[in-house]
Write a structure and sequence with these properties.
With 164 residues, this protein is an alpha+beta fold. It has two domains: 82 residues, no CATH class; 51 residues, Orthogonal Bundle (DNA Binding (I), subunit A), CATH 1.10.30.50. It is 19% helix and 27% strand. It is built from four helices and six strands, in the order ββαββαββαα. A hairpin with a 4-residue loop joins strand 3 and strand 4. It is elongated, with a radius of gyration of 20 Å. It starts with a strand and ends in a 13-residue tail after the last helix.
């Protein structure tokens, strides 16, 4: 099972994504309730069949003070759809600082983009304007809900109502 399940807090706010196995255990132990099942899919044991969860809601409220997307290499690649923002290739990807770090550019969501090795070398220690290179889109910091819905690539039709 490679499917993922959207976990909602008690107030129906999106909390996280987990494996089908973990979600099934939470439902089976009455720690959560199934809100939406995966359309027609089932989990089978030797003697019983259960609907496969797609969205579950926890029975107790969980206080999650920080709901943000961590700044990691993989998350930058996901945000930029695993393609170079300068030429669009999907091969030999690296991270590039729009404002070079040697010139005071921060290591942040708004200054990091996905670039191929060729474009990163060509740009060098210049800004895109100085290197006469244009970005296909400006870097942005994704919200947690946006990341769950669009960028993680795990969104399902059953999730749309809760991630709108």
């Amino acid at each position: 099972m490679e499917s993922r399940v959207l976990v909602l807090n008690q107030d129906f706010s999106p909390l996280m994504v987990c494996s089908v196995e973990r979600a099934f255990v939470l439902v089976y132990l009455n720690k959560s309730e199934m809100v939406r099942s995966a359309n027609g899919h089932q989990i089978r044991s030797i003697t019983r069949t259960f609907p496969m969860p797609s969205v579950i809601r926890l029975n107790r409220y969980v206080n999650a003070p920080y709901k943000g997307v961590n700044l990691t290499r993989q998350n930058i690649f996901k945000r930029d759809n695993f393609e170079c923002v300068y030429c669009g290739t999907k091969r030999e990807l690296t991270l590039d600082h729009v404002m070079p770090s040697s010139r005071g550019g921060p290591h942040s969501w708004l200054n990091l983009v996905t670039a191929c090795k060729r474009c990163n070398t060509r740009k060098g220690d210049f800004t895109p304007e100085e290197a006469d290179m244009s970005l296909s889109h400006n870097p942005f910091k994704p919200s947690y809900t946006l990341f769950l819905r669009d960028i993680s690539g795990m969104g399902q039709k059953e999730w749309e109502e809760f991630l709108a």
